[in-house]
Amino acid sequence: MQYIPNIIFLAALIIGFGFFIKNSRKILRNIKLGQKVDASDHKKERWNNVIRIALGQSKMVVRPVSGLLHIIVYAGFIIINLEVLEIIIDGLFGTHRIFSFLGSIYGFLIGSFEILALLVLISVCVFWIRRMIIRVPRFWNKEMTKWPKNDALIILYFEMVLMSLFLIMNATDIHFQEMNSGNIISQFIAPLFSDLSEGTVHIIERSAWWIHILGILAFLNYLYFSKHLHILLAFPNVYYGNVNPKGKFKNLESVTKEVKLMMDPTADPFAAPAEGAEEPGKFGASDVMDLNRTQLLNAYTCTECGRCTSNCPANQTGKKLSPRKIMMDTRDRLEEVGKNIDENGEFKLDGKQLLGDYITNEELWACTTCNACTEACPISIDPLSIIMDMRQYLVMEQSAAPNELNISLTNIENNGAPWPYNQMDRLNWKDE
Amino acid sequence: MAEYMAQGKQPEVLFWVGCAGSFDDRAKRITKAFVKILNKSNIDFAVLGAEESCTGDPAKRAGNEFLYQMQAMMNIQVLDGYNIKKIVTTCPHCFNTLKNEYPDLGGNYEVMHHTQFLKDMLNEGRLKVEGGKYKGKRITFHDPCYLGRANNEYEAPRELLRKLEVELIEMNRCKSNGLCCGAGGAQMFKEPEPGNKDINVERTEDALKVKPSIIAAACPFCNTMMTDGVKAKEKEGEIEVLDIAEMIINAEDI
Lengths: 432, 254
Fold this sequence. Notes:
The complex is a heterodimer. Chain A has helices at about 5-30, 45-55, 65-80, 80-95, 105-130, 145-170, 175-180, 185-190, 200-220, 230-240, 255-265, 295-300, 305-310, 315, 325-345, 355, 360-365, 370-375, 385-395, 405-415. Chain A is mainly α. Chain B starts with a helix and ends with a helix.
């Protein structure tokens, strides 16, 4: 009988990590629905970016208040999780604070965890205040209702509860308090429980301990359903992020082939495609499968912080375009396609696609390609590339450009300028 | 350029005028200003004239990759035919496309924006810029997206302005945080989507907040957008929108 807690703990661990691995695989499978990307170039720069942007949070502090608070929560998350190692060993083997033999080092470690826990708790409360009381506008855009709004709040509550439990767990651990080393914060909480009997305090301590670890496992599994995957995916996402000048848009090889053929005077205009030749691919993107894997990874990584949208000139002037919504839509559609595959074994046409059912033409045409969104993103997400791919589909597959734009494009084609001027008049300014 | 070729000569640099610089009345003044500077500094340059064609930037950003690549390949044939190595242009859009996107189609050139080119000339002592009539004037600079964020060039235009001895006042949103004028991504050639404001008005308001007497620009499209914005705010009597090249020649009354 005495091993029951250990067995329950082991079962919780297996279930917790099991589900997490299962869902992680699903994410990987969904990302692989996208087109392959070659990121073997610029290795040094990519690692540099991971260290600077992801680990070093260099772009977070562009907005100092949220940036600083985020660094506290980020550092807290990584460092306090060292404690989880001890919890797991204690849980599995029925020990109690197995590392406490480290003496003063242990006190120092737990002491710093306690300080961080308090700082994280404060930061998370400030985050909540910014969201709900101050109502920072980027958290209140049109796309931030229902689930996205609740999701953000659930995450904050989760963190508040976990940090409080950690402190309560330490405060009610009579043995730990008697050691009087490392209880920097919890010693001030402990008196709250001093009226209670030792048995009751012990029950509170055990409950806090159990809810804390079960909460961590639950949070781990909540990630998959939330916008919070960035705590894991930000790192690969930054690695795969753009390493070229922001102004360089990718060259479409499939088009190059066609254009070269068209401009080749020796090409046989009546030639039939070679036997077994591949079907020419789709130009641009109308659904998630047409996007590349980096773009799909981007969608899972997005934390919906809205820095892109708040910097977007179109969004600031009341247009429908919101780069954040482009990322959220991409993820929602990708999840829908994933569920479709779960149910049918393979993707069955569902009469829906990213273009039209999620993202409208009006949003796509409002973009000025100014790169404010990609500059603003703290973890190298690129909404602009998705907008461009979808514009390519609109123009090259559907000929669905706005009319004025079509006129300009026709002008470029006919007289080499977006306006209807004669190419022969290009040098007229010389004599004017 | 054809004349140079006929004489068997090679210019030091090819000046890529661009569509706006060739046809738009406002932008032609920038073209002429830049040419005056080149002439005064005895720079051996050529233009393609009627052989120049749109780089394809608006086509590419409108999603028409076909048209873009057709334009690019034709231009590359012309440029390579004349064995061009170095290009300077007064348009950040041409600059970006020639510099970053032509290499993928086989066109490799050293490409400079005119502010970068003039800065180099200045450092080499081939060009002198003095304050003249702009000395001490409150001037703000609007970063073109395709020079700034797209290509990380924030300093060259500012260095020229400092040489003009102006009082350079930055807008609240500047450099990598600068707001677009609203013309990029082929927006210049279409009506904006419905919203509550035009982007160029929003940007002009940024500029008006710092109360400049001149808004300096480095892109013909930004120039148009900001000029329209100033008109929309009925400030055209007080505030001028000028390209840095124009300011340099005005300062010296060339």
